[in-house]
Design goal:
Layout lengths: L10 H15 L5 H11 L2 H18 L4 H8 L3 H12 L3 H26 L9 H17 L2
Helix pairs in contact: 3-5, 6-7
């Protein structure tokens, strides 16, 4: 867990700090610039922690089971529970991630459609590709990735 000073910062100063943080991190032209800034600002542990938190919320929105989230992301069930409460109160990050969910659901639908058109074992279908597509579809339904 990260440590901060026990002396609280004034609210006005804190607002300015967050504004500066957003201007530094949020206003980037491409992902390369963003990664460079994040790599300079955050330690590897902090980067992984933030990425896992976003992934937990993403998978909870997709209604992936708690145990599967814990297994894939190597987090405790209490961490997943903490973020499931965030999901219930409709925080702004939920609204941001729902746009990604729609794209992801379309991809899942397309994958299932291909599996019904070209199932493994059907004459004239490349069995290897069909089985890989079917396994990927099942994995995405179970684990969300």
């Amino acid at each position: 867990m990260t440590r901060i000073s026990r002396y609280p910062v004034k609210e006005e100063v804190l607002e300015k700090l967050f504004e500066l943080f957003f201007k530094t991190v949020g206003n980037k032209e491409n992902s390369k610039d963003f990664y460079e800034v994040i790599n300079d600002l955050l330690s590897p542990t902090e980067r992984v922690m933030i990425a896992k938190r976003i992934a937990i919320i993403f998978l909870l929105i997709k209604n992936i089971e708690f145990q599967n989230i814990c297994q894939v992301l190597k987090v405790s069930s209490s961490t997943v529970s903490k973020f499931s409460l965030l999901k219930e109160k409709e925080s702004p990050i939920i609204k941001n991630l729902q746009g990604f969910i729609i794209k992801d659901e379309f991809y899942d639908f397309f994958l299932d459609f291909l599996n019904t058109l070209f199932p493994p074992g059907k004459y004239g279908v490349n069995w290897k590709d069909a089985w890989e597509r079917k396994k990927e579809s099942q994995r995405r339904k179970t684990y969300g990735f």
